[in-house]
Amino acid sequence: MLHLGVLLFYVFLSGVFLRPLFPVWNSAIPGGLEDTRLFLWNAWWFRHAIHTLHINPFYTRLLFHPFGSSLVSHDFPLWTNLVSYASQAAGLNLVAASNLWFVLSWILAGFFTYLLAAEVIRSQAPGLRAEPWQLSPAVVAGLYVMTHSYTLARAMQNWGQFNLYGIALFLWLFVRARRLKRTQDYVLAGVALAWTAACHYYFLIYSAAIWLAVAAIDLSPWRINIEKGPQNRAFLILVALGGAGAAWIIFLHPGSLTMGHVRIGL
Known about the structure:
about 270 residues; mainly alpha; 2 domains; two-stranded antiparallel ribbon; two-stranded antiparallel sheet; about 65% helix
């Protein structure tokens, strides 16, 4: 019942935040910048290809005509298309179907982040009975993701990366599987990892990198302990140097790095 209450809380907050959208539900979309129109085309083409043309929706001759183009590497998330397809099949128009996907994905981003944070709390305190006040940080974590500048920026334009819930869903099930150590939970985590590709192929890369990093740490003969062993200290130094290098690239935007006759684009 606690999880249901939190879900309804996120639904309520989403409704409050998006209240200007409801009077124009069938004729306007949130954001409205250039890329959002691309995803309206995606939603139209996915249903048109399956329902009308009865062909593979991941290939179209409407782009680069007459040769056509594959949409596999196009910003064409399966989750977005499935929701809009089902909504149109239920009688909604293209705009309303896209709005339903938007609201649903936004709510799920907050809710699965809440479940992830709650699972982390439980893993740190195995005897926790999950009283509401004890999970309040998890509720705040969900709100943080829903209102973060990255999320809102994606809402304004790049809808392909708005399906953030996929990463939180995978991480929640992954942390849960590591805590419970049951085969069925690891299977669910594996399915969720595959599903991140349906949200966005970037998210599959990010999630797989996290999984590989955790697996490498679990299988490593070293354990990160600053007080024991020069190898661990050397490892931490390398991590710090790598983080400093990444920060240098991100914040200073050097453009390229020249090493002798080799130029590396950054």
